[in-house]
Design goal:
Rossmann fold; alpha/beta; 8 helices; two-stranded parallel ribbon; binds NADP nicotinamide-adenine-dinucleotide phosphate
């Protein structure tokens, strides 16, 4: 029976993925800071879900939680990293920038490393992490968020490249880059092409099952990604 950990499963994409994984026979460890939400989720599948209240900013707690889950599961098949925060922060309020970096950069890196090192030991495993299309460029309204997503994307690529060092190992890294998905995280006012959460999560899960290296969600964001990669900064400054 396969098992998985979802970091950031109390709401949004992480929470919605639970039902797909349970349907496919996974036993799950799920995390987040909001204990009550974790408890509510557990009541629906008490034998299949184990809950861990956890703040990814607390690096030592990440060690403890990961070790505890590992003790129970012995090996880990799949880890979904969905924990994340983002703020519109045009005035560069430090609290918001700092909170974003502590969660999306420091907290995420700690989880990625714990997971990858475990996968090296066991010689298999799949890390699927939710980054963002925001990773592709800068943004004047939410600089820390966009930069943190660029960090995640590059770090995940590094982990992918490191899989070359594992002879005969079956380790997969999937970088999931959503555009706008209808959760509280969707930043900004003029939001367009907002994907319904269920539909987007279905596409995310399909990409995970196919062990894709990278995927834009929904598919139409492939076009925006292509444009973002070629458009010069002076033009972005003019139109955005
Ligand atoms: N929705 C979009 O349009 C969109 C677009 C691109 C990328 N994304 C990315 O998708 C991921 C999931 O976001 P979502 O849209 O599903 O939004 P969400 O509903 O706000 O989910 C965020 C999850 O992250 C957890 N989290 C936040 N801070 C945490 C912390 N310090 N420690 C542990 N867990 C923490 C939250 O749990 P607790 O609050 O209980 O801790 C929650 O479960 C994020 O990385 C986000 O950047 C979303």
């Amino acid at each position: 029976m396969p098992n998985a950990i979802i970091f950031g499963a109390t709401s949004g994409i992480g929470k919605t993925l639970i039902h797909h994984l349970i349907k496919d026979g996974y036993t799950l460890a799920i995390t987040g800071r909001r204990l009550q939400l974790l408890q509510e989720i557990k009541t629906k599948h008490p034998d299949k879900i184990f809950i861990y209240q956890h703040d990814v900013q607390d690096i030592e707690a990440s060690d403890v939680v990961f070790k505890t889950i590992l003790k129970q599961f012995k090996t880990i098949d799949l880890v979904v990293h969905s924990s994340g925060v983002g703020y519109e922060n045009p005035n560069l309020e430090w609290e918001k920038e700092y909170d974003t970096l502590k969660t999306n950069v420091i907290g995420a890196t700690k989880i990625y490393d714990l997971v990858f090192n475990q996968f090296i030991k066991q010689k298999f495993g799949h890390l699927a992490a939710i980054s963002s299309i925001a990773s592709l460029r800068g943004n004047r309204g939410a600089p820390a968020y966009f930069a943190s997503k660029a960090f995640q994307v590059n770090y995940l690529e590094s982990l992918y490249l490191k899989t070359k060092e594992i002879k005969g190992g079956k380790i997969y890294i999937t970088d999931i880059r959503p555009g706008f998905i209808d959760t509280k995280m969707a930043l900004g006012d003029g939001i367009f092409w907002m994907a319904p959460l269920e539909k987007a999560t279905k596409q995310i899960y399909r990409a995970i099952k196919r062990k894709k290296r990278r995927v834009y969600i929904s598919r139409r964001w492939n076009v925006i990604a292509w444009v973002l990669k070629v458009v010069p900064s002076w033009l972005m400054k003019k139109v955005m």
